[in-house]
Design brief:
Layout lengths: L1 H7 L7 H9 L6 H15 L6 H27 L3 H10 L13 H12 L3 H22 L1
Helix pairs in contact: 2-3, 4-5, 4-7, 6-7
Length: 142
């Protein structure tokens, strides 16, 4: 449930204590119901957030920044520019958002290693970098 609290409090406008209160009163409800209650409670209680759409926009902006940072770090690993790295990912049919998904890291490493001819040591370093991207995204969110 701690992960749910962290996810719900990705945006500073939703306090962890408010989310934790909603979660503790949930009685086994689904994550979607808890999320909706936390958002609804926050939008009625906070003057900082006028609508769910604005909150969604803010969360998407945060995600876009984390994705952009991940592409930039990956580009640094290969010693190329961020835009070129984004083009390489697009060519290899890898959505840059997948860089933040821990479940996709091995597939991404395998694809990049194969297509770019990386040796075992470079592949291991790439795996560690992509693992770190997912971890740092979680820390930024919390």
């Amino acid at each position: 449930m701690k992960n749910c609290i962290d996810i719900l409090s990705l945006n500073n406008k939703i306090s962890k204590s408010k989310v934790f209160g909603t979660v503790s009163k949930s009685n086994g409800e689904s994550f979607a119901n808890i999320f909706n209650k936390a958002i609804k409670c926050n939008t009625t209680c906070s003057s900082n957030v006028c609508s769910v759409e604005e909150l969604n926009e803010s969360l998407n902006g945060d995600l876009d920044k984390r994705v952009d940072d991940a592409v930039e770090r990956l580009a640094g690993f290969f010693g190329i520019g961020k835009h070129l790295m984004a083009a390489v990912l697009k060519y290899l049919h890898i959505d840059p958002k997948e860089l933040l998904d821990p479940a996709r890291k091995q597939d991404i490493v395998d694809t990049l290693s194969k297509q770019l001819g990386l040796n075992k040591h470079k592949s291991e370093a790439l795996y560690n970098l992509i693992s770190d991207l997912g971890i740092s995204a979680c820390h930024q969110a919390g």
